[in-house]
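Protein 1 of 2
SEQ + STRUCT:
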Amino acid sequence: MTRRTFSTAVHGLRPRSLAAAPLPASHTQRQARRSLQVRAASSDEQPEPKVTPGKKGKRKGKETPEVVKLDDFNPYSIGRKSRAIFDDVWQQFTKLSSPTRSFNMEQLGSAGDRSEFETPQAAFTTVLVAGATGRVGRVLVRKLLLRGYTVKALVRKREGMEAATGFPSTVTVVNGDVGDYEACKAACEGVDKIVYCASARTTMTGDLKRVNEDGPEMLAVAYHDTLNAKARRRKQISSRAKKEVVKFTREDRLDEWQVQEVKKGEDNMSKVRSKYRAKQSRRDEATVTINKQQNLVFEGTLYSMRGSAEAGSPLRMRFDESLKGCEGLLVRAKTDGQPYILTLTTSENKTYTARISAPADRFANNRVPFNAFRPAEAGDPPLEPVLVDRIGVRFEARNRTLQPVLTNLGSSSVLGDLDSNKLDFRFEMEYIKALPGGEETDFVMVSCAGAPLWDRDSEAAAVRDKRVGPLRRGEAALRKTGLGYTIIRPGPLLEEPGGYKALVFDQGERITQGISCADVADVCLKALHDPLARNKTFEVCYEYTPEAGLAMYELVAHLPDKANNYLGPALATLEKNT
């Protein structure tokens, strides 16, 4: 029979042949402790040694109980387990009385979970907030700082400076008024984008005109001048500068601009009226001159009922530039109060037209986006600005009544009545410039939604329109500056937390509900870098059920979500250059 022995180096047991040998007490104690440590580290798969039944009681009485040492515990793993257990208990407890829940911070390490506060362009963008002490402005300033923007605040010298003391030290505060050009120019130094949240604090006419009407244009002009001065120092041209298309200070412009055609009208008249009309149509005339102010004057007289006259020139821009990358034209002109038509002809001999209406007896800028041009022939493709090689101005005689002629048929005064039916026109133009394009907006303006179309006769609507009127004129002035703009018209502002209700984005002055200041500030923030927000005007309010009779309109609601950009899909269906 084979005899099995086990080494003490493995299991801490002595050979059987030495079991009866006496050992010193100190050696026995050391051996017991050593046996305990080795046994604890041994594998469970090792076979247990055979013990003689007669000696079982003796060996059991000599065994030393297992001692657990402090080194056997890992405090890090125990802490994680305890936190996980406590978190689970706390989560179950909070579900009973609150919608909130706790999170394990070790599981929130991915960048996607912090995307709400991460904007890649923020580190390189300086934003000027006009009206930073207002209800929307103060929320917007903190949102910008959380995302890493450099913020400048334009506040009033008296009332605003007291509220500006609550701004963080990282905000550069500029005291001044939006009606002061020098203050606006100082505030625009080093600025990349502007958010205009200022509003008049009273309903006095002077205050409304200074803040709501003149303020946006003043700040935009100062911003333009700052960018142009910065570009000149670098011997460059600002990317936001308008391109010169036509300016009549050059002597050769008169030779280029000529009367192209004078068309006679065609009417279904009787033979008698056609006879007199044919005589008068021979006298239709139009001329083109350049006056002492170096402006083009296009004038003439039309006797035909539906006659027209047009003057034009080949498109020759400076530095051999083209209209590629531009979004529209800016025409500075003065008219006699009648509508005129701007014509563009491409190299493919396709003509596109757009109406312009300048005020009488004073010069004004007319912004004509390229998407406003319509083809003269049905079926032609949309206008491609890069193909334009000719530009012109056309006047068309309006249809007028023939009652004076009909009542005097057969009399000798028919010819005189036809003479009184002549139509004079005069169009004076200073220049035409091209508006540069871009990907992002430059100027965000917080305006105000007007009263709904079906509630214009109420007393509340009249009070509201007194404030909205100057804002609409301020919006129009901003569009004509050539900057990329985003005009936001919120409903009545509410002092409540944002991000809890769906928002409705609409065009057409049909909204009736209010919106929180925090939601308006968030829309301003997201519009800074969203390409779909450039050159758009829209209303925004909380989701609501349309009034009776308006169900045919589709109002798309979008819920503010921290994980994605809700503004892009909301604005994708809205019309541009509005």
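Protein 2 of 2
SEQ + STRUCT:
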Amino acid sequence: NFKKIFVSMAKDIRVIIIKLADRLHNMRSLNFLSEARQLAMAHETLDIYAPLAGRLGISQIKCELEDLCLKYLDPEAFEFLRKNINTQLSERQRFINSVVEEIKGILAESNIKGDVIGRPKHFYSIYKKMKTRNKTLDQIYDLSAVRVIVETVDECYEILGKIHKKWVPMPGRIKDYIAIPKPNMYQSLHTTVVTSFGQIFEIQIRTFEMHRIAEYGIAAHWKYKEQKTDEDTFDKRLSWIREVMEWQSGVKTTDFIDSLKTDIYDQEILVFTPKGEVISLSKGATPIDYAYRIHTEVGHKCIGAKVNGKIVPLSYSLSTGDIVEIITSKTSKGPSWDWLKIAQMPSSRAKIKQFFKRSMAEEHVKIGKSMLENAAKLKGYVFSQLCTNANFDKVSEKMNFNTQDEMYAAVGCGAVSPQQVLYKFIDIYKKEKPIEEQTVVSSVKGRSHSSGDVIIKGVDGLLVRFAGCCNPVPGDKIVGFVSRGRGVTVHRADCPNLAQEDKDRILPAEWTGKSGENYVVSIKINGTEKAPLMSIVSAACAQLGLFVLSFNGRIDNKTRTSTADMTVRLNKKDDLDVLFKKLRESKDITDVFRTIV
């Protein structure tokens, strides 16, 4: 449902405004539901809807939703705050009223037109401060705030200076959200000051336009449509939604919700581009996150970063105020798998995963095509002759492939075996071609000859083939098994599949010692949870000139390991040892060994 809402938001933002209003109505009438439903809805609202309202700048809805959530999630704390704050409020209000009058006097002396409003802070914001700062209610001083609303930005700064002249500002509590707006485009000057009697209070200074946006957020675009609105501001406010939609495609719903929670919370840092543009990132973000926030292609081409003019590692944790420059290269092959650990923002990780998914798809097409061509060759066929457009149309009806590349990719990634696809093409080919026109495997001629590689003692003129279960290669101890109507099948002597067969049909066999081709072996590879097994195997086989016939990888979340079963065609016996050595060099691979199907 949340994914659907965001898809709709990307098309028309009014969808989420209606959804937020609906949720506010539901929370106001939550007392009619069961306790279990109350808790579930309150948790969901606090996790998603309230932060979302804040991200869209609709503070009125955000504050009321948070207070309603607190009422049901921690009723004791809510009641405590309600009673104690109300008890203090009358005395506090008298103090705030006196502050309001003094600031009005400052405005009058400066000949500045404006409004001054005193307002109590909502319960949840006080509750959060008590929890995060581990303080009691008596230790929270800014229970109320004063808002000064004037006509121009210059007047905002002028009033700030005069307020600091009258009261002492607290160090580290002055925030300029006018120069550097929040991601939801909120703008104000914030300062916390201390009176001569030690009383502490917060003052917010903004223009009338800033106040309108702060109160109504994204809804202000339509509420004041008849007035001139800043379309650039509106577009910036929506940019993060479009970014979420850019990377959410293909992401599991649970991952999307977890990522969304991270993306809409206010825990952000503000960094600068070399041109001075402000970029909002999640707390703990790295240069990789920054690069992907700028543009997906900048992320893919990133090879380094400078922070405040100095080269830093890509794992460097950015801080507010940093000036970040990304170093890119046109020859970059893209992100590495390590980046998934370095990137801290869900949107960055999703874009990295999408890159690998697309790269894998292209690689799967190449691997799948090679596997089908080799599987066909082992059966005595040329796959390009089998896979005509007409034949593909017939196969695609049975296997739901839209294109040949889709078929190759399915084989390459292990979704289907090359044999499953190949046999369907062979069946069609046999039905359409006369027997004499069909390409067939040559039978063995001579009493003790098979492809020039194996001697089967005691047979003559039988077709000799290698078993697909154990895939013997030169150097293995072998035997021949006489099958009904299929000639002699060569097995490894230790093949467990022979244990149940008739011993009288097992014949001694040996290798001729000649160099052979097209030997196939089955291999199992074990690795770490995030090991890119397909990439490691493809690179190793390509380097050695070997063909991968099938590959089926999977991840076990319980043991946090990855496993792959594959078959590969060897050119010579030594290839297997070299391949094993190559694979074991990878730190991500824990074990590799031959298997019997």
